Amino acid sequence: MPQRSQQVVIGMDGGGTRTRVIVADLDGHVLSYVEKGAASIYKDMRAAQHVQEAVREALAAADADPAQVLSLAAGIAGYDAEEDLEWVCRLTDADGLHCPKKHVNDAIVAHIGAFGSKPGIMVIAGTGSILLAVTEQGETIRNYDLHHYARSAARLLSYDAVYDVLAGFLDESHPEDRALASLMLSHWDVSSLRELQEKARHGFHPDARTRNRHFGDFAPAVTGAALAGSPLARQVCSRAIREIRTGIHLLSAYFEQSEVSVACIGSVARSAYFSDQLSQGLSSGTYRRLTLVEPECSPAAGAVLLALQEAGIPVTPAVKANLAASCFTPTAAL
């Protein structure tokens, strides 16, 4: 626990459906870790409440008060344009917290956590989907900048699977397809395909956030069915994997080195089926040799590194080692 005069930093990952807050000392030792609900207003209207509660609880758990915080860095899902700062800045407007605050997109802290200051391509596919590259010159390029989007978010995977079933593409002769359909009916609390069609006709659920969460919750059943051999699930996953590969190859063209590292986070990207298929698909790149690597740290730990950098604290190998040794790293939790 810090002394009352000791300064600390706060790192926050507001990606996916959870807010993850770390309080760390200036040597990179994690003093506390707290999780709350989503940090994005696009996922939960109580986003500011979740973030501020997480900050307060993390400081209390670290036996620190807001006056001791030297710097805060937060990666926020949905922060994509300058005008988003109006709601993003309100998230960290906690009582007594007057330190300098750095707000970035959640993919930025994910990249810092995965690669540190090294170049590479970050693939995020879980609650959301984005690919982000940092080149050898430090230039940040998103697949969004090219107006490319990989439809690999959990909810989209489930939408595609449901639509394929409703469209009649289910192979009734295949046991894994039948098993997927059974799980689908159970998830939507219906007893027949006709009932599911009626639910679809009325939009599944009137609230978009609730509807998307429910679809997102079904994604593990889709990736699991693909791993088990379901033709329908494999077709759905293959479409998403192809779009991820396309994004990776697009971004690899902006690197100068002959080999580019690629890291993945998120429940979809790190599912067994996606991991295997992505690894096979990256064996040869159009522009560069692509190598799939494990993230060094979690996005929340990446936010701690960014907070230290913003405060002018040297991020030495010892600081990184302390953070990696004591930090919870939920690389598949997005």
Structural write-up:
By secondary structure, this protein is α/β, with parallel strands linked by helices. 43% of the residues lie in helices and 18% in strands. The protein has eleven helices and ten strands. The strands form two sheets. A five-stranded mixed β-sheet has the order 3-2-1-4-5, with helices on both faces. Helix 4 (154-166) packs across helix 8 (231-252), helix 7 (208-228) crosses helix 8 and helix 8 (231-252) crosses helix 9. The radius of gyration is 21 Å and the shape is globular.
Q: How much of the residues is beta strand, in percent?
A: 15-25%
Give the uncertain stretches in residue-range form. Answer: 330-334
Structural class: alpha/beta
Percent helix: 40-55%
The major sheet is characterized as: 5 strands, mixed
**From the alpha-carbon coordinates, what is the Rg to the nearest angstrom?**
21 Å
Q: Widest sheet: strand order?
A: 3-2-1-4-5
Measured between the Cα atoms of the first and last residue, the distance is 29 Å
Shape: globular
Number of strands: 10
